UniProtKB/TrEMBL annotation:
Biological source species: Thalassobacillus devorans
Signal peptide interval: none
Superkingdom per UniProt: Bacteria
Keywords: Cell membrane, Membrane, Transmembrane, Transmembrane helix
Protein name per the record: Probable membrane transporter protein
Length: 270
């Protein structure tokens, strides 16, 4: 029964993560903490174990989604590697900083982060798009053959991705919820390219951060074994559903979900 629940959590995390370019950790981490603290299904689990386990799962979510998006030629490798220059070291630093957080501080900061992400998701489409005149020019041709030009300002991209990488390693999230708005608003990525490239970053950030978490023994491998199959299938399902359902409706529901979970985590820390 427990493993079926973990498979389901992995599936939901993978599906939502790949659909919105988030990674899925924002579902997996609070779910593990809830099962360990508020039910008898799992023994109590520390934030370190929840984050370390989540970040391993995110590797498979990111890999599954990236492979699916690659087939659709949606991933901007060049921009992704530029962002990884900052995000990789940031993920390592965040993973080591994670050891310094106790349960109350973790719940408080993670709860605040979830609320911030829910707000970011709500206002992304309403914010004014920047018009960068400098930066690495990228050109994407859509399905109709129209050329869409956007630019990546390398110093801004590396600096911001470094901060996102820290959050990824610290809280076990993919970081896509923050990278996607950056790509859409500042660099004017086409939405489909932003989401697909975000999943590549989720994969790279998680793979880097997982090294530190494994060294520190922050991975519960039995839970990982149950979560991975669900996350892998869920990620593929998320990519499939993104081309068939109203993505905005799903994001609205997900935004409300993470806002409420964020509030609950903050209340637990008080």
């Amino acid at each position: 029964m427990v493993y079926l629940i973990l498979i389901l959590i992995g599936f939901i995390g993978g599906a939502i993560g790949s659909l919105a370019g988030l990674g899925g950790g924002i579902v997996i981490v609070p779910s593990l903490l809830f099962l360990g603290d508020s039910t008898n299904l799992l023994p109590p689990i520390t934030p370190q174990l929840a984050v370390g386990t989540s970040i391993i799962i995110i590797i498979f979510t990111g890999l599954s989604s990236t492979l699916a998006y690659l087939k659709r030629k949606k991933v901007d490798y060049v921009s992704g590697l530029i962002f990884f220059i900052g995000g990789g070291p940031g993920a390592l630093l965040g993973a080591f900083l994670n050891e310094r957080l106790n349960n109350d501080f973790f719940n408080l900061f993670f709860g605040l982060l979830m609320i911030v992400i829910s707000i970011v998701l709500a206002i992304t489409n309403k914010l004014r798009v920047f018009k960068l005149k400098k930066g690495l020019e990228r050109i994407y041709k859509d399905n109709d053959g129209n050329a869409i030009t956007y630019r990546v300002h390398i110093p801004i991209g590396i600096s911001f991705s470094f901060l996102v990488g820290i959050l990824s390693g610290l809280f076990g999230i993919g970081g896509g919820a923050l990278m996607v708005p950056l790509m859409l608003i500042v660099f004017r990525f086409p939405p489909s390219i932003a989401v697909a490239t975000s999943m590549l970053l989720v994969l790279l950030f998680a793979a880097t951060g997982s090294i530190a978490h494994m060294v520190q023994g922050n991975v519960e491998w039995l839970y990982t074994a149950a979560l991975i199959p669900g996350a892998w299938i869920g990620a593929r399902f998320g990519v499939w559903i993104s081309t068939r359902l109203n993505e905005k409706t799903i994001v609205i529901i997900f935004r409300l979900f993470i806002f409420l979970v964020g509030v609950r985590l903050i209340l637990l820390s008080i």
